[in-house]
Write a structure and sequence with these properties.
Radius of gyration: 21 Å
Helix content: 10-25%
Strand content: 25-35%
CATH class of the largest domain: Alpha Beta
Distance between the termini: 49 Å
Oligomer: single chain
CATH architecture of the largest domain: Alpha-Beta Complex
Bound molecules: calcium ion
Length: about 400
Protein backbone atom coordinates (compact mmCIF):
# COMPACT_ATOMS: atom_id res chain seq x y z
CA UNK A 1 0.00 0.00 0.00
CA UNK A 2 1.37 3.40 -0.91
CA UNK A 3 0.10 5.13 2.22
CA UNK A 4 0.44 4.33 5.88
CA UNK A 5 -2.79 3.78 7.83
CA UNK A 6 -2.16 4.36 11.53
CA UNK A 7 -3.30 1.57 13.82
CA UNK A 8 -6.45 2.70 15.67
CA UNK A 9 -7.42 4.95 12.79
CA UNK A 10 -11.20 5.44 12.53
CA UNK A 11 -10.71 5.25 8.79
CA UNK A 12 -9.27 1.75 8.43
CA UNK A 13 -9.52 -0.28 5.25
CA UNK A 14 -12.67 -1.84 6.77
CA UNK A 15 -14.44 1.52 6.77
CA UNK A 16 -14.13 3.54 3.50
CA UNK A 17 -16.62 6.30 4.39
CA UNK A 18 -17.73 8.85 1.77
CA UNK A 19 -17.62 12.62 2.11
CA UNK A 20 -17.29 15.95 0.32
CA UNK A 21 -13.98 17.81 0.52
CA UNK A 22 -12.09 20.62 -1.14
CA UNK A 23 -8.51 21.82 -1.12
CA UNK A 24 -7.22 25.34 -1.59
CA UNK A 25 -8.71 26.93 -4.73
CA UNK A 26 -10.54 23.75 -5.78
CA UNK A 27 -14.22 22.87 -5.90
CA UNK A 28 -15.90 20.56 -3.36
CA UNK A 29 -16.00 16.99 -4.65
CA UNK A 30 -16.40 13.37 -3.56
CA UNK A 31 -13.72 11.50 -1.63
CA UNK A 32 -13.31 8.59 0.74
CA UNK A 33 -11.30 8.68 3.95
CA UNK A 34 -8.45 6.23 4.47
CA UNK A 35 -6.15 6.68 7.46
CA UNK A 36 -5.04 10.31 7.49
CA UNK A 37 -5.72 10.72 3.77
CA UNK A 38 -8.59 11.24 1.35
CA UNK A 39 -8.82 9.41 -1.97
CA UNK A 40 -9.97 11.95 -4.54
CA UNK A 41 -12.69 10.05 -6.44
CA UNK A 42 -13.21 12.96 -8.81
CA UNK A 43 -9.57 12.71 -9.92
CA UNK A 44 -9.79 8.92 -10.03
CA UNK A 45 -12.78 9.20 -12.36
CA UNK A 46 -10.55 11.12 -14.82
CA UNK A 47 -8.28 8.10 -15.26
CA UNK A 48 -10.64 5.21 -14.53
CA UNK A 49 -13.99 4.53 -16.13
CA UNK A 50 -16.54 3.47 -13.53
CA UNK A 51 -19.42 1.82 -15.34
CA UNK A 52 -21.86 4.56 -14.36
CA UNK A 53 -22.05 8.32 -14.77
CA UNK A 54 -18.60 9.36 -13.48
CA UNK A 55 -19.73 12.97 -13.03
CA UNK A 56 -21.38 12.01 -9.73
CA UNK A 57 -17.90 12.26 -8.18
CA UNK A 58 -17.46 15.85 -9.35
CA UNK A 59 -20.53 17.10 -7.55
CA UNK A 60 -20.55 19.05 -4.30
CA UNK A 61 -22.93 16.63 -2.54
CA UNK A 62 -23.19 12.84 -2.35
CA UNK A 63 -26.86 12.81 -3.40
CA UNK A 64 -26.34 11.72 -7.04
CA UNK A 65 -23.83 9.06 -6.03
CA UNK A 66 -25.93 7.51 -3.29
CA UNK A 67 -29.03 7.63 -5.53
CA UNK A 68 -27.29 5.03 -7.72
CA UNK A 69 -28.26 2.50 -5.05
CA UNK A 70 -26.38 0.02 -2.95
CA UNK A 71 -25.39 -2.31 -5.78
CA UNK A 72 -23.26 0.53 -7.19
CA UNK A 73 -22.12 2.31 -4.01
CA UNK A 74 -21.14 -0.96 -2.32
CA UNK A 75 -19.11 -2.02 -5.34
CA UNK A 76 -17.18 1.26 -5.33
CA UNK A 77 -16.40 0.68 -1.65
CA UNK A 78 -15.25 -2.95 -2.09
CA UNK A 79 -13.27 -2.08 -5.26
CA UNK A 80 -11.39 0.60 -3.30
CA UNK A 81 -10.66 -1.92 -0.54
CA UNK A 82 -9.27 -4.37 -3.11
CA UNK A 83 -7.22 -1.67 -4.86
CA UNK A 84 -5.71 -0.51 -1.58
CA UNK A 85 -4.40 -4.03 -0.99
CA UNK A 86 -2.95 -4.39 -4.49
CA UNK A 87 0.40 -2.69 -5.09
CA UNK A 88 -0.23 -2.65 -8.84
CA UNK A 89 -3.72 -1.18 -8.65
CA UNK A 90 -4.73 2.10 -10.22
CA UNK A 91 -4.78 3.70 -6.76
CA UNK A 92 -1.29 2.67 -5.78
CA UNK A 93 0.12 3.66 -9.18
CA UNK A 94 -1.19 7.21 -8.74
CA UNK A 95 -0.09 8.61 -5.37
CA UNK A 96 -1.49 12.02 -6.34
CA UNK A 97 -4.98 10.62 -5.79
CA UNK A 98 -4.21 10.66 -2.05
CA UNK A 99 -4.69 13.99 -0.34
CA UNK A 100 -3.81 14.68 3.27
CA UNK A 101 -6.91 15.26 5.39
CA UNK A 102 -4.97 18.04 7.10
CA UNK A 103 -4.84 19.89 3.75
CA UNK A 104 -8.57 19.52 3.05
CA UNK A 105 -11.70 21.31 4.13
CA UNK A 106 -14.76 19.14 4.71
CA UNK A 107 -18.25 20.14 3.59
CA UNK A 108 -21.77 18.98 4.38
CA UNK A 109 -21.78 15.51 2.76
CA UNK A 110 -25.32 15.59 1.39
CA UNK A 111 -27.89 18.17 0.40
CA UNK A 112 -30.30 17.35 3.18
CA UNK A 113 -33.77 17.20 1.71
CA UNK A 114 -35.69 16.63 4.94
CA UNK A 115 -34.75 16.15 8.57
CA UNK A 116 -36.64 14.13 11.16
CA UNK A 117 -35.51 13.64 14.74
CA UNK A 118 -36.66 10.66 16.79
CA UNK A 119 -36.72 10.17 20.56
CA UNK A 120 -35.77 6.51 20.67
CA UNK A 121 -33.56 6.03 23.74
CA UNK A 122 -35.66 4.69 26.60
CA UNK A 123 -33.11 5.89 29.15
CA UNK A 124 -33.21 9.44 27.75
CA UNK A 125 -37.00 9.56 27.48
CA UNK A 126 -37.28 8.17 31.01
CA UNK A 127 -34.82 10.71 32.43
CA UNK A 128 -36.66 13.63 30.81
CA UNK A 129 -40.01 12.25 31.96
CA UNK A 130 -38.73 11.93 35.52
CA UNK A 131 -37.41 15.49 35.58
CA UNK A 132 -40.38 17.23 34.00
CA UNK A 133 -43.40 15.02 34.56
CA UNK A 134 -44.05 12.11 36.89
CA UNK A 135 -41.13 10.00 38.20
CA UNK A 136 -43.56 7.09 38.59
CA UNK A 137 -44.89 7.38 35.03
CA UNK A 138 -41.93 8.84 33.18
CA UNK A 139 -42.84 7.46 29.75
CA UNK A 140 -45.95 8.74 28.00
CA UNK A 141 -48.48 6.01 27.04
CA UNK A 142 -47.45 5.97 23.35
CA UNK A 143 -43.70 5.63 23.90
CA UNK A 144 -43.35 1.83 23.93
CA UNK A 145 -45.75 1.48 20.97
CA UNK A 146 -44.14 3.73 18.38
CA UNK A 147 -40.84 5.54 17.73
CA UNK A 148 -41.85 9.09 18.64
CA UNK A 149 -40.37 11.81 16.40
CA UNK A 150 -40.86 15.31 15.04
CA UNK A 151 -40.02 17.05 11.76
CA UNK A 152 -36.91 19.19 12.20
CA UNK A 153 -35.32 21.91 10.10
CA UNK A 154 -33.02 20.88 7.22
CA UNK A 155 -31.81 24.41 6.34
CA UNK A 156 -29.75 24.91 9.50
CA UNK A 157 -27.81 21.64 9.48
CA UNK A 158 -24.07 22.27 9.27
CA UNK A 159 -20.92 20.20 9.06
CA UNK A 160 -18.54 19.78 12.01
CA UNK A 161 -16.38 22.82 12.68
CA UNK A 162 -19.03 25.43 11.97
CA UNK A 163 -19.02 27.59 15.11
CA UNK A 164 -22.21 29.44 15.98
CA UNK A 165 -23.56 32.20 18.22
CA UNK A 166 -25.70 31.70 21.30
CA UNK A 167 -29.28 32.07 20.05
CA UNK A 168 -31.81 34.58 21.34
CA UNK A 169 -35.44 33.91 21.98
CA UNK A 170 -38.49 34.10 24.16
CA UNK A 171 -38.40 32.43 27.57
CA UNK A 172 -40.46 32.40 30.73
CA UNK A 173 -38.55 32.91 33.97
CA UNK A 174 -39.49 30.91 37.05
CA UNK A 175 -42.30 32.48 39.11
CA UNK A 176 -43.23 34.82 36.27
CA UNK A 177 -46.23 34.89 33.99
CA UNK A 178 -44.67 37.30 31.45
CA UNK A 179 -42.15 36.02 28.91
CA UNK A 180 -38.92 37.91 28.27
CA UNK A 181 -36.70 38.18 25.18
CA UNK A 182 -32.94 37.67 25.27
CA UNK A 183 -30.03 35.29 24.90
CA UNK A 184 -30.81 31.70 25.86
CA UNK A 185 -29.23 30.81 29.21
CA UNK A 186 -29.60 27.05 28.80
CA UNK A 187 -27.72 25.86 25.71
CA UNK A 188 -27.34 22.09 25.62
CA UNK A 189 -25.95 19.43 23.30
CA UNK A 190 -27.67 16.16 22.41
CA UNK A 191 -25.50 13.13 21.58
CA UNK A 192 -27.17 11.51 18.58
CA UNK A 193 -26.45 9.55 15.44
CA UNK A 194 -28.21 10.09 12.13
CA UNK A 195 -28.88 7.97 9.06
CA UNK A 196 -29.16 9.11 5.45
CA UNK A 197 -31.54 7.56 2.92
CA UNK A 198 -30.67 6.67 -0.69
CA UNK A 199 -34.11 6.30 -2.32
CA UNK A 200 -37.01 8.42 -3.48
CA UNK A 201 -40.41 6.90 -2.81
CA UNK A 202 -43.85 8.08 -3.91
CA UNK A 203 -46.57 9.37 -1.63
CA UNK A 204 -48.66 6.39 -0.64
CA UNK A 205 -45.70 3.98 -0.68
CA UNK A 206 -44.37 2.47 2.51
CA UNK A 207 -40.92 1.17 3.37
CA UNK A 208 -41.43 -2.15 5.11
CA UNK A 209 -39.27 -3.13 8.02
CA UNK A 210 -37.58 -5.80 5.88
CA UNK A 211 -36.73 -3.27 3.14
CA UNK A 212 -35.72 -0.42 5.44
CA UNK A 213 -31.98 -1.12 5.64
CA UNK A 214 -31.71 -1.21 1.84
CA UNK A 215 -32.92 2.42 1.90
CA UNK A 216 -30.21 3.54 4.35
CA UNK A 217 -26.93 4.58 2.73
CA UNK A 218 -25.03 5.27 5.92
CA UNK A 219 -24.66 7.03 9.23
CA UNK A 220 -23.10 10.13 10.79
CA UNK A 221 -22.67 11.60 14.27
CA UNK A 222 -25.22 14.30 15.05
CA UNK A 223 -25.35 17.03 17.70
CA UNK A 224 -28.89 18.32 18.14
CA UNK A 225 -28.10 21.62 19.88
CA UNK A 226 -30.98 22.68 22.09
CA UNK A 227 -31.93 25.88 23.93
CA UNK A 228 -33.72 24.34 26.90
CA UNK A 229 -35.30 27.59 28.16
CA UNK A 230 -36.73 28.46 24.74
CA UNK A 231 -37.83 24.86 24.27
CA UNK A 232 -39.58 24.69 27.65
CA UNK A 233 -41.74 27.75 26.98
CA UNK A 234 -42.63 26.99 23.36
CA UNK A 235 -43.01 23.22 23.08
CA UNK A 236 -46.60 22.67 24.21
CA UNK A 237 -48.59 21.54 22.27
CA UNK A 238 -46.68 21.07 18.98
CA UNK A 239 -43.18 20.12 20.11
CA UNK A 240 -39.69 21.51 19.40
CA UNK A 241 -39.40 24.65 17.27
CA UNK A 242 -36.98 27.60 17.81
CA UNK A 243 -35.36 25.80 20.74
CA UNK A 244 -33.86 23.37 18.21
CA UNK A 245 -33.71 24.88 14.71
CA UNK A 246 -30.92 27.44 15.22
CA UNK A 247 -28.28 24.84 14.28
CA UNK A 248 -27.68 21.08 14.11
CA UNK A 249 -24.23 19.62 13.37
CA UNK A 250 -23.25 16.39 11.66
CA UNK A 251 -19.88 14.71 11.10
CA UNK A 252 -18.45 14.97 7.57
CA UNK A 253 -17.83 11.28 6.73
CA UNK A 254 -20.81 9.04 6.00
CA UNK A 255 -20.05 5.52 7.24
CA UNK A 256 -21.97 2.96 5.17
CA UNK A 257 -24.23 0.39 6.83
CA UNK A 258 -22.08 -2.28 5.13
CA UNK A 259 -19.00 -1.05 7.03
CA UNK A 260 -20.98 -1.52 10.25
CA UNK A 261 -22.27 -4.99 9.37
CA UNK A 262 -19.70 -6.73 11.59
CA UNK A 263 -20.88 -4.77 14.63
CA UNK A 264 -24.55 -5.76 14.67
CA UNK A 265 -26.00 -6.69 18.06
CA UNK A 266 -29.40 -7.58 19.44
CA UNK A 267 -31.46 -4.61 20.62
CA UNK A 268 -33.23 -4.33 23.97
CA UNK A 269 -36.29 -6.53 24.42
CA UNK A 270 -39.38 -4.56 23.51
CA UNK A 271 -42.29 -4.87 25.92
CA UNK A 272 -45.17 -4.88 25.23
CA UNK A 273 -44.98 -6.62 21.86
CA UNK A 274 -44.98 -4.11 19.01
CA UNK A 275 -47.58 -4.01 16.24
CA UNK A 276 -46.84 -6.32 13.28
CA UNK A 277 -45.48 -3.58 10.98
CA UNK A 278 -42.76 -2.87 13.59
CA UNK A 279 -41.81 -6.50 14.25
CA UNK A 280 -38.31 -7.32 13.06
CA UNK A 281 -36.05 -10.34 12.68
CA UNK A 282 -32.34 -10.58 13.40
CA UNK A 283 -29.94 -8.08 14.92
CA UNK A 284 -30.77 -4.50 14.05
CA UNK A 285 -28.79 -2.56 16.65
CA UNK A 286 -25.11 -1.64 16.26
CA UNK A 287 -22.38 -1.61 18.90
CA UNK A 288 -20.91 1.86 18.40
CA UNK A 289 -19.04 3.46 21.31
CA UNK A 290 -19.85 7.14 21.67
CA UNK A 291 -18.27 9.91 23.70
CA UNK A 292 -18.76 13.61 24.34
CA UNK A 293 -16.03 16.01 25.41
CA UNK A 294 -16.18 19.60 26.62
CA UNK A 295 -13.26 21.96 25.98
CA UNK A 296 -13.41 25.32 27.76
CA UNK A 297 -11.56 28.14 26.02
CA UNK A 298 -7.81 27.95 26.77
CA UNK A 299 -8.30 24.74 28.74
CA UNK A 300 -8.02 21.04 28.25
CA UNK A 301 -10.61 18.80 26.68
CA UNK A 302 -12.38 16.46 29.10
CA UNK A 303 -14.75 13.57 28.58
CA UNK A 304 -18.20 14.23 30.06
CA UNK A 305 -20.15 11.29 28.60
CA UNK A 306 -19.55 7.72 27.37
CA UNK A 307 -22.54 6.07 25.72
CA UNK A 308 -23.30 3.52 22.99
CA UNK A 309 -25.62 3.38 19.99
CA UNK A 310 -26.58 -0.19 20.95
CA UNK A 311 -28.72 1.17 23.81
CA UNK A 312 -31.37 2.40 21.35
CA UNK A 313 -34.82 0.95 22.13
CA UNK A 314 -36.16 1.60 18.61
CA UNK A 315 -33.82 0.66 15.75
CA UNK A 316 -33.39 2.47 12.43
CA UNK A 317 -35.46 -0.05 10.47
CA UNK A 318 -38.37 0.44 12.87
CA UNK A 319 -37.99 4.22 12.65
CA UNK A 320 -38.12 4.21 8.85
CA UNK A 321 -40.97 1.67 8.70
CA UNK A 322 -42.98 3.76 11.14
CA UNK A 323 -42.15 7.03 9.34
CA UNK A 324 -43.59 5.73 6.06
CA UNK A 325 -46.41 3.49 7.30
CA UNK A 326 -48.93 6.25 6.56
CA UNK A 327 -47.61 6.71 3.00
CA UNK A 328 -45.19 9.56 3.78
CA UNK A 329 -42.55 9.62 1.02
CA UNK A 330 -38.80 9.67 1.62
CA UNK A 331 -36.04 11.21 -0.53
CA UNK A 332 -32.41 10.69 -1.39
CA UNK A 333 -30.54 12.75 1.20
CA UNK A 334 -33.08 12.71 4.02
CA UNK A 335 -31.50 12.78 7.48
CA UNK A 336 -33.04 10.91 10.41
CA UNK A 337 -31.73 11.59 13.93
CA UNK A 338 -31.81 8.86 16.56
CA UNK A 339 -32.72 11.09 19.46
CA UNK A 340 -30.40 11.61 22.42
CA UNK A 341 -28.53 8.37 23.17
CA UNK A 342 -28.33 7.80 26.92
CA UNK A 343 -27.41 4.64 28.80
CA UNK A 344 -28.27 3.53 32.29
CA UNK A 345 -25.16 4.91 34.03
CA UNK A 346 -24.98 8.54 35.07
CA UNK A 347 -21.85 9.08 32.97
CA UNK A 348 -23.63 7.75 29.89
CA UNK A 349 -26.31 10.44 29.76
CA UNK A 350 -26.26 12.14 26.35
CA UNK A 351 -27.13 15.74 27.29
CA UNK A 352 -26.20 18.34 29.91
CA UNK A 353 -29.85 18.38 30.97
CA UNK A 354 -29.42 14.80 32.19
CA UNK A 355 -25.73 14.93 33.24
CA UNK A 356 -26.42 17.91 35.57
CA UNK A 357 -29.97 16.66 36.26
CA UNK A 358 -31.83 19.86 35.32
CA UNK A 359 -29.23 22.03 37.02
CA UNK A 360 -29.34 20.29 40.40
CA UNK A 361 -26.00 18.43 40.02
CA UNK A 362 -23.44 20.74 38.41
CA UNK A 363 -20.66 19.06 36.47
CA UNK A 364 -17.11 19.65 37.77
CA UNK A 365 -14.75 20.92 35.10
CA UNK A 366 -10.96 20.43 35.32
CA UNK A 367 -10.27 24.16 35.35
CA UNK A 368 -12.20 24.45 38.63
CA UNK A 369 -15.41 25.78 37.10
CA UNK A 370 -18.79 24.05 36.98
CA UNK A 371 -21.35 23.57 34.24
CA UNK A 372 -25.07 22.99 34.24
CA UNK A 373 -25.31 24.00 30.59
CA UNK A 374 -22.81 25.09 27.92
CA UNK A 375 -20.84 28.32 28.45
CA UNK A 376 -19.75 30.79 25.77
CA UNK A 377 -16.56 29.63 24.03
CA UNK A 378 -16.97 26.02 25.15
CA UNK A 379 -16.36 23.46 22.39
CA UNK A 380 -18.42 20.27 22.37
CA UNK A 381 -17.05 17.27 20.45
CA UNK A 382 -18.85 13.99 19.76
CA UNK A 383 -16.87 10.92 18.68
CA UNK A 384 -17.91 7.41 17.76
CA UNK A 385 -16.33 4.14 16.68
CA UNK A 386 -17.07 0.42 16.48
CA UNK A 387 -14.28 -2.00 17.35
CA UNK A 388 -14.12 -5.79 17.52
CA UNK A 389 -11.30 -8.32 16.97
CA UNK A 390 -8.84 -5.58 15.95
CA UNK A 391 -11.24 -4.27 13.33
CA UNK A 392 -12.09 -0.64 13.85
CA UNK A 393 -14.62 1.45 11.96
CA UNK A 394 -14.99 5.01 13.21
CA UNK A 395 -16.87 8.18 12.48
CA UNK A 396 -14.22 10.77 13.31
CA UNK A 397 -15.89 13.61 15.14
CA UNK A 398 -18.45 16.37 15.07
CA UNK A 399 -17.20 19.42 16.94
CA UNK A 400 -18.32 23.03 17.29
CA UNK A 401 -17.77 26.02 19.56
CA UNK A 402 -20.55 28.10 21.09
CA UNK A 403 -19.71 31.78 20.55
CA UNK A 404 -21.26 34.63 22.55
CA UNK A 405 -24.55 36.13 21.37
CA UNK A 406 -24.20 38.41 18.34
CA1 LIG B 1 -32.96 15.48 19.67
Amino acid sequence: MSINIPKNSDFSIHNIPFGIFSTKNTMPRVGVAIGEHIIDLSALANIYNFNFDNSVFKQSTLNSFIALGKSVTNKVRTDIQAWLKDDNSILNKHPKLFIKQADAKMHLPVKITDYTDFYSSIEHATNVGKMFRDPENALLPNWRHLPVGYHGRASSIRVSGTDFHRPKGQTLNANSSQPVFGASQKIDFELEMGFITNKNTAIGDTVTIDNAEDCIFGMVLLNDWSARDIQKWEYVPLGPFLGKNFITHISPWVVTLEALEYFRVQGPKQTPKVLPYLEYKGQKNYDISLSVTLTPQHNQEQVICNSNFKYMYWNMAQQLAHHTVNGCNISVGDLYGSGTISGKDKNSFGSMLELAWAGTKPLKINDGSERIFINDNDTITLRGYAEKDDIRVGFGEVSAKLLPTK
